[in-house]
Amino acid sequence: MIDKFKNIFSAKRFSIIFLAVSLLLTLFVLYTPMPVAKDNKTAFSAIRAAEHIENISREPHSYYDRVEHERVRQYLIETLSNYLGSTNVSEHTYSIEDTKNTVKAINQEKNKLAYDPEKVLYDIQNVMGVLKGKSEKGILLVAHYDSRGHVGRYGEQGRSYGAMDDGYGVGSMLELAFLFKNQNPENSIYFLFTDAEEVDLFGAIMASKDVSIMKNINFTINLESRGRYGATYMFETSNNNSKVIDLYKKASLPVSYSMATAVYSVMPNFTDFTPFVEAGSPGMNFATLAGLDNYHSPLDRYENIELSSIQHMGVQVEPIIKEFISDSKYVTDNYFESNNNQVFFTIFTDVIITYSYPVAIILAIIALISLVGVFALKTKERSIDKTLVTNVLLKGLGLSVIMIIGALLYSNIVAFIGKVPFSVTYTRVSNTEVPTFLLMALATLVLFIKIRKSDSNKVLLVGTTVNVVLALLTTFTLEGASFLFTITSLFGIVAILTDYINSKLAKKIILGFSYLVLLLLIMPLLYSFYMALTVGGVVVLVVLLILNGVVTLPIIMKQFSVE
Fold first, then answer.
1. What is the pLDDT of residues 275-288, one digit of tens each?
2. Which of 107, 185, 305, 472 has the most Cβ atoms closer than 10 angstroms to its Cβ?
3. For residues 72 and 149, is the Cβ–Cβ distance under 8 A?
């Protein structure tokens, strides 16, 4: 029986099955849940949230569409009053003059035209409800109720109905108010619906400067939506987020990568989260990303919403709020202060890995020391020669340059055909998913063929070395991105050391587990980057594919070679 078991594991079909299962598992990392039934009064229901979305998105209701804008505002007031009581609902109106003066002061402070005061044509009208706790201090939930009302960047049609942006956030917040309305929390919950986000964040700016509001706010969660479907990402945090991430770990089905804040910082997008962070509030920013065709267009309407994405937004955020309002420690002064950021990433459904910056440094040093040890072993065996540089490193760099140029050409051609300017961070063209997938598949195939024709063991050694170098660089300059290179290099080293394991069974399992982890890491990350950066960012995807592929592909080949 034992011999039969070993034969199964030693057969090449095991490697094929293991690889197939590994690729299948990567599809579940960004899992979104089925919507909860409307009659379930104790759990977040996207179906109930969708009823609010249907109401507010019947017509465009931008800051400039005054009649429909007012109807939506009154709907928010009425709904919040029904849930929380009319005495716990307030209107915060800021005059044209006050708003302009505030914006001008911010521009002067930043020494640039950060916001345009000339866009302020009407009073800013925010709506806020509060579920009072034993303490007046509490958590602030934010979503904007205005829709996009005019043509913005290239590729945007304007005149949005606001079902997704930001109906997902507004509907989710109203559903959360419904769920929590009968609780007697330790800390308060503030539900803020901001005005004129689509114009220039005016509602959030004024609220963040309003002492009557901010004196009671110890934490901020902003709910946004750029996309129509797919996972809701926690894509941005306040700086020095160590304790913020500790709170985020209470989320259900968390989806987040610490690389996201770095990427978001170079994108031409801002949300209502920005003014509150600048005002000193710790917090998190959530949004859906996939389905850009609907973004800021007439397609952003109720008929196109995705209930599963709304459900994911709700079930992810609800446990965080529940945790916050249950413990008075979260409203103590300076509770969220920290001296460093955490590194974090989603590795599978409902599994998020987090560790502190000191741990990130230790892991990078371990990778370096282990790599030095590997080179010492290989040098002693005389298995390292100049071909490691001439045939592997230099040729690999040449191939990488060609692939990068190809990715840039592809994005520029797509931008030309779509008649939009090319940008690495935002090139909005419809129907690019399939050709981009085919391009990435072709790039993977080219890598595979070139590695197979070369010495895959030497490629693995060079690829691991490159990732160790990048792990060290990012750990000390951009720690949020370090996990990708640190984890890749550590499993690359593990795979190299399987050369010294005699058991074929153990070797197959270790190699399989190594590339499984790397696939679970890179596949959803590539998809997420594509959704965030659009087709213009394909060059970034290709770079990440190369850096991961020169480790993952040789590991797969090693497992297949074990007979």
1. 999 999 999 999 99
2. 305
3. no
CA 111 – CA 27 distance, rounded (Å): 46
Sheet holding 89-94, edge to edge: 89-94, 124-131, 187-194, 135-144, 217-225, 283-290, 229-237
The C-alpha atoms of residue 463 and residue 390 are separated, in whole angstroms, by 14
For the chain, which domains are there?
Answer: 2-29+355-561 (no CATH), 46-339 (3.40.630.10)
Q: What is the DSSP letter of 336?
A: T
* Amino acid present at 343: V
CB crowding 471-509: b at 16 or more within 10 Å, else e: bbebbeeebbbbbbbbbbbbbbbbbbebeeeeeeeebbb
- Range with lowest mean pLDDT among 25-34, 277-286, 385-394: 385-394
Joined tokens for residue 488? 């890749």
> Rg of the chain's alpha carbons, rounded to an integer?
26
- Residues 345-371, mean pLDDT to the nearest whole number: 96
This prediction has a pTM of 0.93
Residue with tokens 């997704």: 164
The β-bridge relationship of strands 229-237 and 124-131 is unpaired
**Full DSSP string of 186-221:** SEEEEEEEES-HHHHSHHHHHHHT-HHHHTTEEEEE
Distance CA 412, CA 508 (A): 43
